[in-house]
């Protein structure tokens, strides 16, 4: 009997090729999402003449609009109409995470308006290590010595700013704490990133919309003022919030969490580059020393993560 041709190598080669293409797509999606987040200061610089609280309210309302559309586009619209989707426990959890993300958004918008993008960058560099520390405190996670050393280096970096500049980087700390709380709460939430943002903005929107209506009645809102440009920019804050989330949600289904964790550092790096080279914010030797401590801590943590099972430093 004649032997059948051996197709196994060809099949294996095709599988490897498909896997490589999928990984390349995942990296492209994640880089796209994190690059957009890294460029957020450019977007919010265009509305710095509008009070930060008003911009935050618009971002919450318009994010709901665009996230709802995204839910429909990606075929998850049925969840919006599912009764189980609005279970009391889920709503309580998402209300807490919504509050945390609103605080994070508000601090960031205020920081951009007040030329503190460098502090914002520092906060997002610190966030992963603070998330790890929160895991120890609230989830009883155990850390090896290398992780504790990385956290200690981040604390030293902040201390350099406090001692040498005589100021506490409240923006950095506020962003890191609010984002870490957000990640901690979302870790226990029974919903994914896109439906989660839908619920968060749904719960934030009544308060945000009430505030905007009140401003409108006072004749003091940019959305209903003379400038069409302001109206478009404010609506656009919802689009730029929802779009990278869609790319990121898809990327997380393809890539390993460790890869996602590394790519997430594109966000504060983009903000750092904008702060120093575009917005010309002061960057002294003290800032360099503080950032160096934190960069070294992150590098050390990344090295440790690649050699052992450390907790993920990304939410």
Walk me through what this model shows.
It contains 13 helices and no strands. The chain is an all-alpha fold and 315 residues long. The chain has one domain (25-307). The N and C termini lie far apart (59 Å). The model has no long low-confidence stretch (mean pLDDT 86).
How is the topology of this model organized?
Blueprint: H1 8-38, H2 40-45, H3 52-73, H4 77-80, H5 88-113, H6 117-139, H7 145-165, H8 170-187, H9 193-217, H10 228-252, H11 257-263, H12 266-278, H13 285-307
Task: Summarize the amount of helix as a percent range.
Answer: over 70%
How many domains? The number is: 1
Instruction: Report the strand count.
Output: 0
Q: What distance separates the N and C termini? A: 59 Å
By secondary-structure content and strand pairing, the structural class works out as: mainly alpha
Order of helices and strands: HHHHHHHHHHHHH
**Which stretches are poorly predicted, pLDDT < 50 over at least 5 residues?**
none
Average residue-wise pLDDT: 86
Beta fraction: under 5%
Radius of gyration: 22 Å
Largest sheet entry = none
Number of helices: 13
What sort of overall outline do the alpha carbons produce when their principal axes are compared?
globular
């Amino acid at each position: 009997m004649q032997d059948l041709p051996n197709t196994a190598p060809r099949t294996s080669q095709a599988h490897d090729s498909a896997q490589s293409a999928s990984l390349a797509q995942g990296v492209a999606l994640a880089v796209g999402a994190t690059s957009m987040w890294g460029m957020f200061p450019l977007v919010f610089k265009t509305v710095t003449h509008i009070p930060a609280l008003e911009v935050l309210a618009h971002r919450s309302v318009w994010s709901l609009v665009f996230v709802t559309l995204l839910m429909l586009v990606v075929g998850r619209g049925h969840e919006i109409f599912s009764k189980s989707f609005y279970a009391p426990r889920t709503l309580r959890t998402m209300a807490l995470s919504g509050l945390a993300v609103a605080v994070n958004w508000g601090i960031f918008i205020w920081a951009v308006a007040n030329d503190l993008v460098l502090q914002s960058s520092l906060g997002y560099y610190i966030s992963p290590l603070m998330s790890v520390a929160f895991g120890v405190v609230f989830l009883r996670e155990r850390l090896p010595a290398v992780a504790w050393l990385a956290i200690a280096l981040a604390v030293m970096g902040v201390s350099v700013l406090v001692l040498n500049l005589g100021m506490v980087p409240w923006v950095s700390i506020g962003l890191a704490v609010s984002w870490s709380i957000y990640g901690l709460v979302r870790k226990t939430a029974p919903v994914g990133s896109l439906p989660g943002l839908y619920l968060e903005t749904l719960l934030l929107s009544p308060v945000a919309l009430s505030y905007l209506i009140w401003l409108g009645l006072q004749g003091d809102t940019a959305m209903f003022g003379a400038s069409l440009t302001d109206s478009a920019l404010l609506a656009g804050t919802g689009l730029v919030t929802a779009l990278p989330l869609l790319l990121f949600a898809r990327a997380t289904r393809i890539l390993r969490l460790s890869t996602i964790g590394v790519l997430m550092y594109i966000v504060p790096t983009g903000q750092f580059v904008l702060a120093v080279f575009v917005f010309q914010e002061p960057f002294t030797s003290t800032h360099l020393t503080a950032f160096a401590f934190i960069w070294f801590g992150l590098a050390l943590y990344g090295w440790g993560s690649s050699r052992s099972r450390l907790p993920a430093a990304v939410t």
